[in-house]
Target: S-adenosyl methyltransferase
Amino acid sequence: MTENDEPAFAPQGIDLERPNAARIYDWFLGGDANWAIDREFGEKALKAVPHGKLNAHVNREFLGRAVTYAVRHGVTQFLDLGSGVPTVGNVHQVADRLDPDSRCVYVDNEPVAVAHSRILLEENGDASRHAVLNADMRDVERVWTEAFETGVLDPAKPIGLLMVAVLHFVSPEDGGEAAVERYRALLPPGSLLIMSHGTTDGVPPEHLVQLESVHEQYKQSSTPVTLRSRAEFTALFGDFALVDPGVVWLPQWRLDEAESEATAEVAHNPPASFMLGGVARKG
Ligand SMILES: C[S@@+](CC[C@H](N)C(=O)[O-])C[C@H]1O[C@@H](n2cnc3c(N)ncnc32)[C@H](O)[C@@H]1O
Model:
């Protein structure tokens, strides 16, 4: 951080005219890879949804439990699309604790997220097992080719493909559904698709007002949000077999897999997480 409390460097290509999902989410999680414009957005969002920061942690904990589940069930290499600015409990760290030979390639299209991922991996990654790509997840063929060109992933083995809290930034019109369908086709058998997504479906009226307000706010950002229904989100898993308990509110997904402190706080009111999640296996 500089004297005026801004990050010390701004990578090339960063849009500082508008707030951005990666940097807002970083602020919600307590990181310092965000600028005044992102923090103003975050403060305003918290006025509408006072438990907004908690929800970011709830999503992060889902990611941790899903990766834990994957490694425990033999899937030890990961492709994390829309991976974000690294924070506590990054995929490679969760996986490494359970399998020191696990692998991970991170992908994001926000330069700040990519730059911070590079720094983290230089400091505590292993170049033969971890890599980061600056790419748009909709460029499926490019992402797939470059992810394997890193040499980190073994194309013969199942992959844990994560699209956690990213698809609501990629509308059907922008190619969200088509991209996910193509990834499903490319994944080797035995792979796991791990996804979470914002929805208004089933959110009680008092929370719906909060969510709609933030939804409106995101329209002014560089990353507007498309909230899919439960059915639309479930359809993204295609014919993959959903792992128990299926598509549920994040605080309802396999709490026993790993400690989930923030999730415990909203466990009495799962729809207040505004996010559905699920994991499904390719046959
Ligand atoms: C809310 S963050 C989620 C980060 C992480 N997956 C998690 O759940 O903790 C969403 C991330 O998706 C990234 N993103 C949005 N659209 C993307 C796209 N088309 N391609 C790649 N990344 C994208 C954003 O830059 C941001 O880092």
